[in-house]
């Protein structure tokens, strides 16, 4: 048990001793243990675990952990015998991380205790008699009690081992375990009841196998879904980490934009499947920065017009990066168009109004809101109320008013936890210049006569970059100090090779 904390070793050992004590009566002479059904059920459970040990079948069929067999055993066998059913399968079950033996012992002991408790719950409510007489409606209560007892013991043991083996506060170790387990155990309990009733029928145990095939297929489909979802999350994480490495001063910005985008989308009544896509759009909105030269992103001085044009290509670069990722769906259009404006003055294509994809309009508001409420290297974060006031003032020109109203409602309902993305010692935010709509206020521009002592951002997003040009063209100190992000006409018209 090398590598396992001492407290965890003691916990596993204690659980194993309790499991042995529960199963031991079935092994004593004269116990009358029904060995034939016990052996059949143990074999079925072990067979359900076996495919996961095969490199070929494990990838095709997924892991076993076939609880209907164990819950059927709780309704068919005495408690001590039910505790033995899981042991052979648990001892051959696959282990992703070592050491393998103590983890298998833990799994066998956990399942044995859960099955023993479930069998006792079923016996107390007359489950074996109801199953034997095929009183199906009356058998629902003991079957439900058995499934609940199995779930409670399993989650209690899981939380305990998490508390002693991981640096998790005891109050958090059990958090969410029961709520996530109840529904699956209810479904498996119903399948176990059907299996037990068919087992006691004139057709015997072969009929019970008819329940296992559809259940196994449903478990396989569920496992496939989770594998695919995990692959999606890994893809998103890799892209976001690459952006954070390249443009470190906005680290965390992408995740917060994804969160704000989901808040807006929920207020708009979007369904759950679309919420995931909107979240992906918010998280990946700046992935095109991977195509922008690092020297431009991290330049310490004002951007030249050519550098500004390069950085304004990042939505198109982002679209090129993700357009082959099918599960992103409409998120790809949001990545391409999240810098468009309602009045048509945005980029890359100067779309206006409803011609801008809805997902892009959601992300534009979320992006601007987080930019204003996050501390950057060139200014402190603005209060949420101030940021909301700016969004409302610019609604209709820069932002879709419907998205702004949705964000305001979401903030009233859920609040917002602001986060620091850069130096806490940045100067206080400057005032807003009249007639401008800030999405990300820029640093002071040395070319306008403004205070040049404020630090430049280590990396800049497109709003900060493109705002330098109008400030220089107006030549006003107030425009340079304040957030002047309105792009000059014609931005995004001359584009090369990114589409």
UniProtKB/TrEMBL annotation:
Ranges where the record places region Disordered: 422-499
Biased composition (Low complexity): 422-438, 445-457, 476-486
Enzyme class: hydrolase
Basic and acidic residues bias locations: 458-475
Location of the HD domain: 250-372
InterPro entries the record matches: Cyclic_di-GMP/3'3'-cGAMP_PDE (IPR052020), HD/PDEase_dom (IPR003607), HD_domain (IPR006674), HD_GYP_dom (IPR037522)
Residue stretches making up the HD-GYP domain: 228-423
Transmembrane segments: 66-92, 113-134, 140-165, 177-199, 205-223
Signal peptide: 1-21
EC number: 3.1.4.-
Keyword set, alphabetical order: Hydrolase, Membrane, Signal, Transmembrane, Transmembrane helix
Protein name (record): HD-GYP domain-containing protein
Organism: Streptomyces lavendulocolor
């Amino acid at each position: 048990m090398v590598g396992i904390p001492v407290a965890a070793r003691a916990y596993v050992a204690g659980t194993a001793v309790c499991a042995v004590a529960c199963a031991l009566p079935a092994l004593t002479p004269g116990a009358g243990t029904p060995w034939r059904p016990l052996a059949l059920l143990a074999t079925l459970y072990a067979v359900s675990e076996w495919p996961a040990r095969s490199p070929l079948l494990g990838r095709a069929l997924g892991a076993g952990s076939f609880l209907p067999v164990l819950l059927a055993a709780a309704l068919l066998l005495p408690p001590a015998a039910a505790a033995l059913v899981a042991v052979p399968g648990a001892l051959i079950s696959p282990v992703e991380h070592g050491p393998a033996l103590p983890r298998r012992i833990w799994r066998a002991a956990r399942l044995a205790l859960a099955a023993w408790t479930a069998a006792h719950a079923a016996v107390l409510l007359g489950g074996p008699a109801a199953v034997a007489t095929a009183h199906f409606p009356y058998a629902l209560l003991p079957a439900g009690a058995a499934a609940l007892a199995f779930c409670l013991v399993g989650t209690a043991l899981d939380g305990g081992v998490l508390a002693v083996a991981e640096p998790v506060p005891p109050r958090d170790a059990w958090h969410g375990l029961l709520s996530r387990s109840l529904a699956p155990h209810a479904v498996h309990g119903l399948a176990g009841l059907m299996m037990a009733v068919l087992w006691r029928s004139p057709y015997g145990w072969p009929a019970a196998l008819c329940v296992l095939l559809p259940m196994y297929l449903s478990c396989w489909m569920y496992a496939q879904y989770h594998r695919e979802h995990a692959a999606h999350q890994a893809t998103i994480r890799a892209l976001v980490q690459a952006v954070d490495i390249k443009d470190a001063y906005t680290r965390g910005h992408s995740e917060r934009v994804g969160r704000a985008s989901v808040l807006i989308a929920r207020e708009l009544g979007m369904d759950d499947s679309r919420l995931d896509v909107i979240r992906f759009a918010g998280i990946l909105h700046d992935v095109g920065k991977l195509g922008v030269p690092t020297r431009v992103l991290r330049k310490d001085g004002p951007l030249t017009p050519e550098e500004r044009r390069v950085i304004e290509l990042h939505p198109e670069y982002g679209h090129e990066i993700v357009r082959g990722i099918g599960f992103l769906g409409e998120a790809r259009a949001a990545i391409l168009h999240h810098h468009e404006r309602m009045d048509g003055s945005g980029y890359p294509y100067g779309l206006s109004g409803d011609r801008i994809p809805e997902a892009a309009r959601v992300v534009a508001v979320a992006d601007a809101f987080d930019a204003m409420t996050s501390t950057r290297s060139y200014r402190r974060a603005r209060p949420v109320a101030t940021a909301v006031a700016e969004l409302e003032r610019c609604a209709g020109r820069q932002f879709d008013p419907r998205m702004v109203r949705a964000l305001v409602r979401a903030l009233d309902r859920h609040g917002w936890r602001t986060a620091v993305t850069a130096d806490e010692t940045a100067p206080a935010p400057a005032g807003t210049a009249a007639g401008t709509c800030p999405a990300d206020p820029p640093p002071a521009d040395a070319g306008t006569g403004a205070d040049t002592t404020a630090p430049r951002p280590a990396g800049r997003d497109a709003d900060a970059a493109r705002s330098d040009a109008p400030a220089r063209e107006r030549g006003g100190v107030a425009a340079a100090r304040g957030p002047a992000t309105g792009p000059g006409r014609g931005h995004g018209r001359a584009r090369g090779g990114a589409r």
